[in-house]
Amino acid sequence: MSTREKIQEQHDVDTLEQKNNEIVLYNDDVNTFDHVIDTLIYACDHTPEQAEQCSILVHYKGKCTVKTGVYEELEPRCTMLLDAGLSAEII
């Protein structure tokens, strides 16, 4: 009876880590819930439920993270929020 050896090769894998940033939306006394919800759906690809939950959190907590990702992906989305009159920043 013969035996066979299984050899497991080791491979080094380089991973590129990218820092995730966040778009934080801040409360204001100007914009309506409907405007905030519609803008989050448009700019951040939220579902209506996500957008509504974020708008409620912003209203009661003062701010809410509405999108996370790499800076290059978030910048145009944050610009859309700002152009719509909302208060937001990338952190």
Automatic annotation (TrEMBL):
<dbReference type="InterPro" id="IPR014719">
    <property type="entry name" value="Ribosomal_bL12_C/ClpS-like"/>
</dbReference>
<protein>
    <submittedName>
        <fullName>ATP-dependent Clp protease adaptor protein ClpS</fullName>
    </submittedName>
</protein>
<dbReference type="InterPro" id="IPR003769">
    <property type="entry name" value="ClpS_core"/>
</dbReference>
<keyword id="KW-0378">Hydrolase</keyword>
<dbReference type="GO" id="GO:0030163">
    <property type="term" value="P:protein catabolic process"/>
</dbReference>
<dbReference type="Pfam" id="PF02617">
    <property type="entry name" value="ClpS"/>
</dbReference>
<dbReference type="GO" id="GO:0008233">
    <property type="term" value="F:peptidase activity"/>
</dbReference>
<keyword id="KW-0645">Protease</keyword>
<feature type="domain" description="Adaptor protein ClpS core">
    <location>
        <begin position="18"/>
        <end position="83"/>
    </location>
</feature>
<dbReference type="GO" id="GO:0006508">
    <property type="term" value="P:proteolysis"/>
</dbReference>
